[in-house]
Each structure stands twice: as structure tokens, then as C-alpha cells.
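Appendix B: complex inputs.
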Amino acid sequence: MEESFREKILAGDRDGVKVLTEEALQRNVPVEQIIHKYLMPAMDEVGRCFEAGDLFISEMLMSARAMQAGMAVLKPLIVGAKIKTLGCVVIGTVQGDLHDIGKALVAMMLEGAGFEVHDLGVDVKPEKFVEAVRNLQANVVGMSALLSTTMPNVKITIEALKTAGLREGLIVMVGGAPFTADYAASIGADGYAEDAASAVRRVKELIVRR
Amino acid sequence: MRPIRLSVLAEDEKQAIHEATLEVLKTVGVRVFDDGLRAVMRERGARVDDTSGDVKLAPGLVQEALSTAPHKFQIMDRKGKVLPIPTEQTYICSRVLLPKSLDYGAPKPRDPVLADIQKACQIANALDEVDVVLRTDTPVSDISAPPELNGLLSIQTALTYTYKHFLCIPIDGEAMKDWLALAEAATEHGDLSKEPIITLEVSTTAPLQLDRESGRALKMGAEKGLPVMAMPMPAGGGTAPFTTAGELVAMNAEALFVIVAAQLVNPGCPCFYGGIPCTFDQRTGIISMSSPEFPLMTSGSLEMAAFYGLPSISASKYTDSLAFDEQCGAEKIMSAFASMVSGADILYGDGDLDNAVVLSLEQLIVDLDLVLHARRFVQGILVDKERLAVEAIARVGPGGHYLEDEHTLRHLRSGERVSPRSYNRLGHRSTAKPAIERAHDIVQQITSKPVEPAISAAALARIQAAVEERKRQIKARA
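Resulting structure:
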């Protein structure tokens, strides 16, 4: 069964993974085992293939969607069994900025890695970030900006989170072409990543440290 | 000479791209975030949905708007030199500012300072082959003024130290106001439609969006009659279709939308057709501005410009490389060649490294030579009785030489043969240097001279007065 999950996820076969997950449940395989022995290891293999250059990003995303199709079958049982995701992430492109694709890619890869992700879209006002972090009790907020004129809105949003009493214990990640690690640190972010794959690694590192 | 032209699209293929574009503009449209621009477009016949911001254009409206876009116009520098558009000999553009500057020999780039703008302007002034200059809106680190004045003062520096025509890329509506105020002051009579010393670049955000600030800048610039260059920047596989034909359709739709919008605001507004056909790199997730498909799609888009009879700008000579290396040379020469052989009226991108994030003055010199190199091919071989040189051959005869022959002397400086100034032509000799070192010598030679304003005292005073007025306006708005 482990090999079947691996093949279907690598192939990006959503329907196939859904059927396998249902079969596993019918055979009374525990939910935690399905997640940690079949779905997550298959995604780890996808990650390794991508890093090795054997898979393209679009193929990796198809694999992530296939894995999520399996998770969707398990979701009602996860809530009931109180099985945790890796964390809850709120992500968006800051106010005034319409650039979406880098942020969307990070969101999809975080989801594929096992995080619960809420993508607020683009041109997101600071108060909307605050509201989402509060309502969802997010562990992580990710902000993207691609223009030198919208970069300041990242700092403004971090300040808004502080004012709302939400900064303590929250992991703030930033990214986008104009950012550097130094700039991210200077505005009070906890983490910065140059690309989507390293963003996932960095979030995982920061979550483990907390 | 007869320019060499290369065609990557057959006539029926161009027609197919055009028809697909009309379908996209009619059924999908572009999302316009500026209320003012949407209102004008609605008034002039576009279908506007104010809830989504989507603006759709019927084919008839597109055709009508394109019929008012001039096929010929002119731009100018501030010494009165007129640059007719279109042109058979592509105009060359050098950069004066990017988000980072790379000093010769430095291990990594740094934030730009005002002296970088001054030096880049000196180089532009010193080299005859530079017709036009480009300034990207980005903060200059040693301007000791509030952030809202950084752009204004940096534009002042740029307009002070070079007189050449500017391609400007205002980051928002306030930056557009800065440009308009200072550029009007820089002219004799304050009318940019009569003295077109700047051209406005408007970029859409792929897929199919025109953000609020770009929309504001477009409306302001078109109202003033500034030449507007449409510069979409889709990334195939990410923000545009994966196929090259599909990306051309998406890019064509965004370019035409900007041009139509400019015509609806001000019929007859001069427009350039442009585009930066990027690729979403499927291995790294980075948007590449120099993939192997870039020169191919650049040629395709320039042919579409010609299909519409529109003048064109090619943003090229980008590289994903961080340094002057084999990748950099290969990527830049391919896109320079494609742009010129496909008939771009203006070619920009000199001096860039790392996807147009870093400006290197040495790279600028080498890039100008790459352009000369590509341009010589495009200029072709002029065949006439004089150039067939039968008389010279007979005169020199078997075993002679042509060094002092009158035919050689007549054509020596005619442009028949060009010699890029930075390229090494000394082989292995002891005085031979790599191109980048020769380029550095040239940069030193030019920038070691004192930096002086390139415009008259009267123009300086007018620009200074405009700066003070803009400061008052910005303060009042705050």
C-alpha cells in the first residue's frame, strides 16, 4: 500500500489517491498511519525528486494536490481524532501589490508539506492580515511584496500585528524579489526565504524551534 | 544599407495571434484597478464591470483605437536632436539607475548612490551610440530627505546630468507627477507634447491586470500627450500560457490594452508596442528574463508590432547571470540580435545583471558593444559598383595589399566595419586584456572627468523651481 500511494502521488493522480485513501480506511488502517506512513513520505519523495531536478514545479504541485485529495477524505476523521497539522499559516501579498504567483507557490508548497494554509490573496490590507491571524489562531503569517513601493507595507503590517497583541508567538515570514535577509531582520520579521522551497524549509525550522 | 530582417511568424500565424487576442480582450478583458481610468474607458466604449474592475474591449473598439495610434512620430533630446520613429537603425538605450550597483571587482552589489546616476549619465553623454536613457524607479540610498522625496530628487539628478531622451518608469502616480513637473520644467516651453523629451513606460501585471498606480500614471501621461510604451511582462507557465504562441497572445492582449487605453484617454497619443516575454522557470520557481525562448518571443512580438504598424521597443539584453560570464554573453547577444533583426525601434537593457536588478557600468560598456556587434549583422551587405571594388582589386593586383589603397581610405570610417571598443583584439599579446577590464578602463576614462550638469543654467533653475513646488505639494498632501 505504501508503494501504491507513492506511485499515485508522484504521478499527481488525485482520483487514484482518493480511492487508495478510502480503501485504506475500509481496511481499518489508522488515520495517523495513512498520513505519516503513506501520504507524507510520498510527498517527501516528491520533494527529493524536485530538488534533484527530476520533477518540475507544476508536477510537484500536481503531486501536492493529489496528496490533498487524500487528506480531504481524512479531514472529518482528523478533526474528530484531534490530529494536528504542522501549523496554521496565513499568507498574502501586501496592500498595493498585485503580484501573486510567488506567494501562491509558497502557499501550495506549504499545504503540500502538511500545513493548514489560508491564502488571503493580493492587495491585502494590514487589518485583514490581523483579522485572519486572530480568527484562525495562526502560528505563521507570510507576506509577499514585489515592488519597492509596497515593501514598506510589510513593516506596517508587522506593526499592526504588534498593536493587536498578536505578534508574540507568531512566526512572521517575508519574501519577494526586493527583499534581503538583512532587510527582513531590520523590519522585525522572523524569517526570509529566496524561493518557495526554502520558504517551506525555513517555516518548518522556525516551527520546530518554537 | 539594406537592413536584414528575420521572420519567425508567417502572415497567417500573425493573423491567428491577432484574432486570438481580440477574443481574449472581448471575453476576458483586463482588470483595471484605477477608477478614473475605468471611467474614461467606459465613457469611450469599453465594457466595464466596476465590481470586478474587468474592462472588456469589443474588436471594433480595438480596431478603432488602433487606427488613431500614430504610425510615425518623433521623440527628442534636450539639445534639440530629433529621433524620428520608426527608424531603420535601432536606437540604443543605456540605463542610469537600477535597485543595486556593482562596482568593478566588488564581490557583491550595493545600494545605489547619486554618484552612480551621475557616472551613468556621463557615460551616456560621452558615447554617441547612446540615443536614449532609462531610469528605473528605485530608492537612492544617500539622498538625505524623507522617503517621499527620494524619487523626486533622484529624477532631478538624472535630468540634470544628461540631456538625452528619457524612458521613465514611474512606480506610482506621485512619481508620475514628479516626472511631469520636472520634465516640463526641463523643456523650453513647458509642453511635453511639443517637446517629447520623455516616454512613459506602462507595465501591466500578468495575467491581465493593470494596477491602480500604473493606471493613474497611464492616464496622466496620455492626457499630456506623452509617448506611452506598453511593456507587459508575462511569464510562460506561471502568469501566461506555457506555450510560446499562447504567451504571445497573452502579451499581445496586454500590450494592445495599454495602447487602446492610451488612445481612449487621448486619441492620437503616440504609443510604442513593447513586451518582456519571460519564462517561469519550472526548476527554480524564478521568473527568467533570459530563457532561450526570450529572443524567439521577442522577435514574435516585434513582428506583431509591425503587423499593427506600431513603433516598437524591445526590452532585451537581460541575463539571469550575476556576473560577466559565458551565460551573460550568450543570453545578451541572442536577445540583442533578435531585437535588432526583427526591427525594434528602440532597444533597452544595457548594463543589467541578475534580471535587471544590478547595474554595472562595465557591463554597460560591453553591452553597448554587443549591440554594435549585432547591429552590424543587421545592417547587411551593401552591394553596388563602388563596393564590389573591381577597380581596387585590379589596382592592388596579385600579391599587393589594400592598406593604403584609396578604396580602403574612402570606406575606412563609413561603418562598413566596426570595432567594439571593449573586445580584445590583441590575442595573446602582453597588452591584451579581457573585455571587462578594457570596459573598466573606458569607464575610468569617462568618469574621471569632473561631473558637470549637461543642461543650461536656465534649465537647471527651472528644474530646481519645479522641485521646490513639488516638495510643497507633497508636504501639503501628507
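Chain A touches chain B through 20 residues (CB under 8 Å).
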